[in-house]
Design goal:
By secondary structure, the protein is α/β, with parallel strands linked by helices. It has helices spanning 41-52, 70-82, 94-107, 154-159, 162-185, 197-222, 228-246, 252-260, 271-286, 289-302, 318-327, 344-366, and strands at residues 10-14, 31-36, 58-63, 87-92, 111-115, 127-131, 137-142, 149-153.
């Protein structure tokens, strides 16, 4: 079986790079459809206006509304095709970017991804997570390639709430433990090939960077500054985590997270927060107690959830959790990349145990 690693053609990162977007547009044409998060539009629009002032480019904006679902993708694909655009650019958070990637893929156009938060590993990947309109998980849409370019302005990232950077750490934290499981089981990665050693090494680097710089990066963002620690964690959350999960492989943590879409109380929770708690559940499944303790300590230090109450679900309903655990084990779930058979009952017990351990940890630490 072949090994395969996928990556964006270009990855640009630094403070203020959004203001020089035009420097990196070779091969993208001159007519850009920009799908933008309405929340960041007032901040981003003036920067782009100044960047492209007096230059031979046409920019048209579509504000992302609703859910990354098939009906929205179809509508924006028609806009891209009918308008004769040469490139689709996404600016915003994870669902805005996943929608952009799906639209560019469907329209057969190059794509540029500009994350304004470092809250997940969505920006660099060659897949989009598609949801139903009501917010439950629908499917993965696997693309032929990663984005043509990903541009990360760390001044913008540092200006976002620290909670979003921490959520990205939760998503990135799972990367090593899932890639490790895939290598142990011999399963395929997310691009239907065996993991390269480079991908597994980048996944491990995610966890090493988080332990070294995660707390410092959070504190810097809370202080309103962009330090080298912020640069490291922005790259970790955005780039390293993507290569690590996509070319290294997913396993139980993200499989359980998909099950969480069937817990209504968690629908509005940040993806990375759900994934962080699901990582604890994966480590319970693996009986990996040294890793469990290390992850628990790190999560508590930066403010990642360690129990259901931290996710805004204090009154846990066992049957709802049991249903989510069963949904996490559907035949197509990445949970089956674990190096042993996993059942819904095992997932349910791991989640309830992780919740109990997390609540006890809070008692000891919080007094």
């Amino acid at each position: 079986m072949s090994k395969l690693l996928k990556s964006p053609s270009r990855y640009v990162q630094g403070q203020g790079v959004l203001a020089e977007l035009d420097k990196y547009l070779d091969g993208m044409g001159k007519k850009l459809l920009i799908i933008i998060d309405p929340f960041v539009d007032p901040m981003i629009h003036p920067v782009l206006d100044k960047c492209f002032e007096g230059k031979d480019y046409t920019l048209a904006y579509e504000k992302f509304q609703g859910e990354c679902c098939q009906s929205l993708i179809d509508r924006l694909t028609s806009v891209a095709k009918d308008g004769g655009f040469t490139c689709v650019t996404g600016i915003g958070g994870g669902k805005t970017l996943d929608t952009t990637k799906a639209v560019a893929f469907s329209a057969g156009l190059p794509m540029i991804i500009v994350p304004t938060i470092a809250s997940s590993d969505a920006p660099c990947s060659s897949c989009s997570v598609i949801y139903h309109e009501e917010g439950t998980f629908d499917r993965y849409l696997f693309l032929d390639s990663c984005p043509n370019m990903v541009l990360v302005d760390t001044a913008v990232i540092a200006g976002a709430p620290a909670k979003l950077l921490v959520a990205g750490m939760g998503d990135a934290m799972a990367t090593w433990f899932e890639a490790r499981a895939c290598r142990a089981s011999g399963r395929d990665n997310q691009v239907h090939a065996k993991p390269t050693r480079a991908a597994t090494a980048l996944a491990k680097l995610c966890w090493e960077n988080l332990k070294r710089d995660g707390l410092k990066a959070k504190q810097a963002v809370e202080a309103g500054v962009c330090t080298e620690a912020v640069e490291v964690i922005a790259e970790t959350n955005t780039y390293l985590s993507t290569i690590g999960f996509e070319s290294g492989g997913l396993a139980a943590a993200h499989g359980i997270q998909k099950g969480f879409t069937h817990i209504p109380a968690l629908h509005r929770q940040l993806h990375g927060f759900n994934v962080a708690f699901c990582t604890l559940a994966q480590l319970v499944l693996e009986d990996a107690w040294d890793d469990f303790k290390e992850v628990m300590d790190f999560s508590y230090s930066v403010g990642l959830p360690i129990c259901f109450a931290d996710l805004g679900y204090p009154e846990v309903e066992p049957e709802v959790v049991r249903n989510a655990a069963e949904k996490a084990c559907v035949p197509t779930s990445t949970i089956h990349n674990m190096p042993f058979e996993v059942t819904g009952e095992m997932v349910y017990q791991a989640l309830m145990a992780a919740d109990a351990y997390g609540r006890e940890y809070h008692k000891r630490k919080d007094g």
